[in-house]
Amino acid sequence: MTETSRSVIRWGILGAANIAKTRVIPAMMQLAPSVEVRGIASRTKERAEAFAEEFKIPLVFASYQELIDSKEIDAVYIPLPISEHRRWAERCALAGKPALVEKSLAENAPAAGAIRDAFVREGVMVAEALMYRYHPLIRRVKALIDSGRIGTMQLIRSNFEISLPRTDIRYFKALGGGAMLDLGCYNVSIARYLTGEEPIRMHGVGQFGEVDEVFAGLMQFPSGVVSHLGCSLRGGFDCSFEVVGAKGRIRVDRGGMVVWPGEDFRIKVFEGDVASEELIPAADSYVLMVDDFCRKMREGVVDSGSLDDAIANLRVIDAMLASAQ
What we know:
By secondary structure, the chain is α/β, with parallel strands linked by helices. The protein has helices at about 20-30, 45-55, 65-70, 85-95, 110-120, 135-145, 180-195, 285-300, 305-325, and strands at about 10-15, 35-40, 60, 75-80, 100, 125-130, 155-165, 200-210, 210-220, 225-230, 235-245, 250, 265-270, 275-280.
């Protein structure tokens, strides 16, 4: 694909999701004037118009397909329920529109593979919006591990809990709900990222309603590293991880796997009886993610790498959920 001649990437948003409202659209606006939120489509015209008025979005489309087909839109962000990701991502691919698809990419690994194949077939840029990977905090933790500071890695512990009302879409199977798809994707991803490996043994247990509401899982990696995770749709808030090595451990508390914008984060390092902290200044991983996507678009990159990673992540989630049934 040749480089795009556009200096301004004009984005269209499919759906008035909260993540778009609170994180991704503000991130896009920070990248102005090289990035513009040009259009919005929602299930109802009234909701789309209210969204457009709040964010000064110039175009309101009558349907998702109309937005995708519009010559006024260069790229599409898809924050719809997970059950809708494959359908609308594939339509973006057919229309030749680059797409940034919210995590988890799809309901399972085969559906995610179909999304990747559609974009590769059409030669169109696509990525999963797993934003934490772009934050300096995560890269610094990996650098500390790779430096040997805590010795040979042995164990990774992670926990992600939130409290959601029963009316939330994440409690409904038909909408692609479940603790593992919404929260556990981070736990699985961070263990795979820090080890640089794919797990060879996986097992999970959970408390199920229509979906997995509370879940715990175990992974073992080829190097011998063991990882255990917990996630819940009905717990008090926690988002933390810890890496244990032969000589010490590294811990990140309070938001360590989502690294929200506007706050500093601390990496705690324990070496024997000696504890120290590193302060990681505030950074907006959503801005970094969108900027990276737009740069690749301008360079004409067709990047399926993030989707290969998303598919691998979903294979682990699929296996854990299957083992718990």
